[in-house]
Amino acid sequence: MSAVAPYVFLAVAAPFAFWAAWSDLRRLIISNKLNIWLAVAFVPVGLVLLPLDVFGWRLLVGLIVLLIGYILNITGVVGGGDAKYAAALILYVAYEDLAPFFMTFLIMTISAFLTHRGFRLAGAAGWTNAEWKSWTSGKNFPMGLALSGALLFYLVSVAFFSFPPTRL
């Protein structure tokens, strides 16, 4: 496996993560185009940088997350874009790092929720992008913000701090 893999995965996934967070904050939508491109971008990079068995396992985990997300979506627990985005971004997470990643996601979800709701309650929406749907969405929360935060934190941690220990 290549020593540059963490940096390449970060460089490939980061623009999509920022796009997803911004789009979800602004319109409460993570587009299918974004999710497809994030997954498609993984294929050539993963084939070059990962052993074939690791590449295959990541695709399998992505399909499992997509299936779980589909079930959660039809039961009304999560949005469809969030479910597809989770399936696409999990491709960039090493199998042995799934537990630390999900813990990071939990912390990011709580942090993003409290920050978003705090800004909304403080009236910050009036002076920062008041037209964004996430400020006036009632119960809806832009989960793309938390998913993107978790992915970026994970990829930066692996690339620059070798944490969590991984074979990315």
- Provide the domain count: 1
Helix fraction bin: 55-70%
Sheet having the most strands: none
The assembly state of the depicted protein chains is single chain
Order of helix and strand elements from N to C terminus: HHHHHH
Q: Provide a count of the helices.
A: 6
Record field, number of beta strands: 0
Task: State which percent range the strand residues make up.
Answer: under 5%
Structural class: mainly alpha
Task: Please give the alpha-carbon distance between the first and last residues.
Answer: 8 Å
Low-confidence stretches: none
Q: Rg from C-alpha positions?
A: 16 Å
Shape verdict: globular
Q: What does this entry look like structurally?
A:
The chain has 168 residues and is an all-alpha fold. It has one domain. 70% of the residues lie in helices and 0% in strands. It has 6 helices and no strands. It has helices at residues 5-27, 32-49, 52-74, 80-89, 98-121, 143-161. 35% of the residues are buried. The mean pLDDT is 92.
